[in-house]
């Protein structure tokens, strides 16, 4: 491994490695930059093995070779994943079902958590029999879903909040004050402001016991429908209205490929060829928020346009990203991350995180081992300029 240099004057929180992911894992481990059980989140967004050509990538691997490639890299990174780590594998419908078999084999069937369905486009593709507007993201956890549930983070609700009663605590969302099932301790009479006595419908119970309801009512956390003549609903304020992550992620909530393209276009207005399927920072922020906390280590073995590294840097995570194509590193990855460090990238999640620049990252090149196809970037660093 050759240290090319660094970008930024602050503390180093990331590493850009130019080389094949398999070689990068070995090289960083040998250098002490990657230690056992140190990785909190692994994100993999590989060429999909579909035989298509897109921009910077030529995705023409035979499926058997593609599956072998993925198995090798998963097996190599496995010892470095922490007991609380999550693995997010972003694919399309072409290979997701086959990739799940590989993941089950390497990580164990008990590690499967869910498949996130991400709406990657808001428009309709009229050239196909059925317009495919989503990508599946396979989610696995090293400790299995029951353990991971205790360490993963919740997400903000996706229902728009409002403040219909001018509550000084700010915007809120309302939720039913009933729950499924019969619970004897949650069967009691509630009298609404109109004087109507209410009981749960058949097969349901109130959401909480009567003492808890009275406390919520006293705290102003109960909202009555029909102007006080209807049912009670619970007020969840933005500050504490966090939900269990779901599997349907809408493009208006977490961004689309087109959003990511527009972001890249602001950074590279003169670029003749951009990625066809870059991932928006808002999508990556959702993933990183769920699976990590500030200071945790995130690894991406297929850097591409650099969305994972850029998002991790802005969110205060440590990160390692590798990319084997010199053209991608030279024309997109390093310039983009240099903008992030310099504070000249105002797109993506910059506004949400109040990002103004800072930090630094190292750049290394990893020569290929026998049979690998990595390309070095010796002498590249001085060519990187930030406008």
Report on the structure:
- With 387 residues, the chain is an alpha/beta fold.
- The protein folds into two domains: 2-154 and 244-383, Vaccinia Virus protein VP39 (Rossmann fold, 3-Layer(aba) Sandwich), CATH 3.40.50.150; 172-241, no CATH class.
- 28% of the residues lie in helices and 25% in strands.
- It is built from eleven helices and 21 strands.
- The protein has helices at residues 21-31, 63-77, 96-107, 144-149, 210-218, 251-254, 257-267, 281-291, 307-314, 326-342, 350-353, and strands at 2-7, 12-18, 39-44, 53-54, 57-58, 81-90, 112-119, 134-141, 155-156, 172-176, 178-180, 190-191, 197-198, 204-206, 222-224, 232-237, 242-243, 248-249, 297-300, 318-323, 360-365.
- Strand 19, helix 9 (307-314) and strand 20 form a beta-alpha-beta unit.
- It is elongated, with a radius of gyration of 24 Å.
- Residues 49-60 and 370-387 have low confidence and may be disordered.
